Amino acid sequence: MRVVLLGPPGAGKGTQAQIIAGRLGVPAISTGDIFRANVSGQTELGKKAKAFMDAGELVPDEITVAMVKDRLAEPDAKAGFLLDGFPRTIAQAEQLRSSLAELGHGLDCVLELVVDEEELVRRLSGRRMLVDGEMVQRDDDKPETVRRRLQVYRQQTAPLSGFYETEGLLARIDAIGEIDEVTARAMEACGAGDAGRASGD
Ligand code: AMP
Predict the structure, then answer these.
(1) Within a 10 A sphere around the Cβ of 99, how many other Cβ atoms?
(2) Which residues of the chain have pLDDT under 50?
(3) CB 164 within 8 A of CB 173
(4) Of ligand 1's atoms, which has the minimum distance to the CA of residue 35?
(5) How far does residue 141's CA lie from ligand 1's centre (Å)?
(6) 63 exposed, middle or buried (CB, 10 Å; 0-12, 13-18, 19+)?
(7) What local confidence, expressed as pLDDT, does residue 197 receive?
(8) DSSP designation for 198
(9) What is the C-alpha to C-alpha distance for residues 19 and 3, in angstroms, rounded to an integer?
(10) Which of 31, 83, 93, 114 has the most other CB atoms within 10 Å of its CB?
(11) Are 166 and 75 in contact (CB under 8 A)?
(12) Ramachandran area for residue 59 (φ above 0: left; ψ -120 to 50: alpha; else beta)
């Protein structure tokens, strides 16, 4: 299956991406994680992306699209994938559609995780991640950057919901609740309700 996971920062995309991709037996590809790995590895790509990320802005489409194209060309993504955090602009969505079409493929499902903004701010300000054995706040989870990221989401990413609705691919799900409840809603919404259950996770 080829799936896109849409939703604002703090909606739980990363967590759900891992679980859903595991159930579907496809790799979870997070553009945010790829960028963060490049920033810590101080690669050329990381150097280009860092200032945008720190400011809560999107990394320019040409950089992001080229990176995703390379990742999707890797063997593990041939039979399917779950994209987390891409596309984030209409231009990225159009590029994704044409690169997949060149290979004779299309997306099977676009899942939008819906969470109201008050809850997002609450979740993001309390969010910590484990780095070198310590729980730290992501630089871009600082309050002023969170505000900008939510604004960028509303302006540049939210229109994707209409784009994919027109394509007949959009499934919107309520992403408030226990993690496994949200996963079950997501699997059901993508018509994959039974996938992966036998594996016991
Ligand atoms: P995330 O972990 O998905 O919240 O992404 C963290 C940051 O990486 C974002 O705030 C952007 O600066 C950058 N980023 C991730 N995915 C994209 C994308 N598809 N397009 C542009 N920038 C992105």
Answers:
(1) 15
(2) 199-200
(3) no
(4) 8
(5) 12
(6) middle
(7) 61
(8) G
(9) 13
(10) 83
(11) no
(12) beta
Ligand 1 atom closest to the CA of 53, numbered from 1: 12
CB 48 within 8 A of CB 59: yes
Q: What does the pLDDT read at residue 200?
A: 45
E strand or H helix that includes residue 31? helix 31-40
Q: Which of 160, 133, 181, 172 is nearest to 19 (CA)?
A: 181
Kindly report the protein residue whose alpha carbon is nearest to atom 5 of ligand 1: 32
Indicate the pTM of the whole model. 0.90
Q: Rg for the chain (alpha carbons), in Å? A: 16
Q: Which stretches of 55-196 are DSSP H helices?
A: 61-72, 90-102, 117-126, 143-152, 159-166, 179-189
How far apart are the C-alpha atoms of 196 and 155, rounded to whole Å?
A: 36
pLDDT of residue 146: 85
How far apart are alpha carbons 99 and 96 in whole angstroms?
5
> What Cα–Cα distance (Å) separates residue 138 from each residue in 33, 128, 129, 131, 143?
12, 7, 7, 10, 11
Q: Is 13 a catalytic residue?
A: yes
Residue 172 annotated as catalytic: no
How far is CA 186 from its chain centroid? 14
What six digits make up the tokens of 192?
Answer: 């994959």
Ligand 1 pocket: which of 16, 29, 31 to mutate (most atoms <8 Å of CB)? 31
Between CA 116 and CA 123 the distance in angstroms is: 11
